Amino acid sequence: MTHWHWKSAWPAPAKLNLFLHVVGRRPDGYHLLQTLFRFVDHGDWLHFSPRADGDVVLATPLPGVAPESDLTVRAARLLQAETGCRQGVTISLEKRLPMGGGLGGGSSDAATVLLALNHLWQLGLSRERLQVLGLTLGADVPIFVYGRNAFAEGVGEDFTPLPLPPAWYLVLEPPVQVPTLDIFRSPDLCRETPEISPHSWTPGFGHNDLEKVAVELYPVVAEHLAWLAAFSPARMSGSGACVFAEFASREAAETVLKQLPQGMRGWVASGLSSHPLIALGAP
Known about the structure:
- This protein is an alpha+beta fold.
- The protein has 8 helices and 10 strands.
- Strands 1, 2, 3, 4, 5 and 6 form a 6-stranded mixed sheet that branches. The chain has a 4-stranded antiparallel sheet with strand order 8-9-7-10, with helices on one face.
- It is globular and about 55 Å long.
- 42% of the residues are buried.
């Protein structure tokens, strides 16, 4: 097991939604989902340095995102507020995942901050408590704290762990940011896909209910899906924009990647059996 310390580079992996069904809506307007989250071996990296002044500083602000509204800063300040911790931190983020890509980049970053600083500041919060805190930052934060590939229900916070077979994925990044709220607000969104039980899921099952709306709003997403679907069944992840297809081997995925038309971006990653920080701290 890796010995995690201040000098470590801390991983924040991407997730793929192997399927995503909207099965209803709560009275408060939140959509009820069923989805299968899978972590992949590609993502952002975070670095932490202790500060004596108790402040939380993001050394690598993202263009167009005010530091105080950045999820990494909010996650660190949430931990301080929750525990009364007076320690500070400088956070450096190596951003490899696209914003508005449906890969959970910002949520994964926030989860890694919660897990890392709980460990580095020796706060002793349980993983369950960190999941509850994470949900206040965003709907996808808890799955990254939970750390296991899982069938998710509710608004995306009720998990059933599912062991997934090894797989390789080719992920394409259409050059557009898709605002999740625009997709969920669409009158064209299907909101009544029948529910299934977690253990009746089989590889290849289902579809992404958000895809139809996203491709209508963003034709470039449709173009990427169509290109990829010529090689293997292709799907959108989350609310988009990224699309992916599964392959049996790295070689098969990379053979297709080499054929990517000029102007399209993509990468190959293996499916993980769990989050790289799964062994950290309390179970």
